[in-house]
Amino acid sequence: MRDALAYEWARVRTLRSTWWLTSTSLVLGIGISGLLAWALHHEFSTRGSVDLDGIGAALATQLSATERIPSLVSFLLAMIGVFAWGHEYRHGMIRASLTALNSRSALWSAKYLVVGAWVAVVSLLTTCLSALLGTLILHEYVTVITDTTVQVIGLQAVYAVILAWLAMAFTLLTRSQAFALVTIFLWPLLVESLIQLVFFIVPMWRDDTELLRFLPFKAGARMTAIIENPDGTFGDPMSPLGATIVFGGVTVALMAVAFALFQRRDA
Predict the structure, then answer these.
(1) What is the span of the domain harbouring residue 37?
(2) R_g of the chain computed on alpha carbons
(3) Per-residue pLDDT tens for 103-120?
(4) Single pTM value for the model
(5) With the CA atoms of 162, 165, 167 and 173 taken in that order, what torsion angle do they form, in degrees rounded to the nearest 10?
(6) Helix axes 16-47, 104-138, angle to 10 degrees
(7) Comparing C-alpha atoms, which of 186, 218, 225, 245 is closest to residue 61?
């Protein structure tokens, strides 16, 4: 296992795509938060400060804590997960990797551990620096770093890791880097929206729209949501714990299927 971790660590940190996605996540994440903080500073300086619930959490997560906007940083980091398996199959390197390690389970585990650790660190770094920048800009008007902000920063890192692992499992299942990249963005933006539309259009399903909260990405969005108070663990709206169980459960199930097929398939 130690050799597999060393192998995967060397592979991840020597890929240009890893550094491009990492730097893009940091620049966009901190930049968006800085622009939001600057806009609020302008608003407060002209009209006076306003008591806004969760303003620190919203700034740290580029508004994804409001549940209305997907986490751009998390989706960018999920692409690192796609490339973790995608490059192996796209460039035919999976045979060399398995020959070098001679253990499919070790390679599989090492990829998830290394990518998960990388994504968690970058997510935490982005949200923490975003919160600090917000504090520098808005310290005269509001307290950005609160207990809620710290909690949401942690949850955002967990969400980013789960999303990256979900992307990895789907890529391993399909063995198609391009298809996985398209699907990871289309599913939450289009497919789940179409499912919700069908529930609202079909008369017999309108009374069951509360089931929509169990859609994977809709549930995942609730992991960092702080605007609406949850109605129980799996209530409507769902609590962060319930959302983590649903989104994480789907990810674990997909990972298990991908692992089983990875053990049986030819390289």
Answers:
(1) 2-264
(2) 20
(3) 888 889 999 999 999 999
(4) 0.91
(5) -140
(6) 20
(7) 225
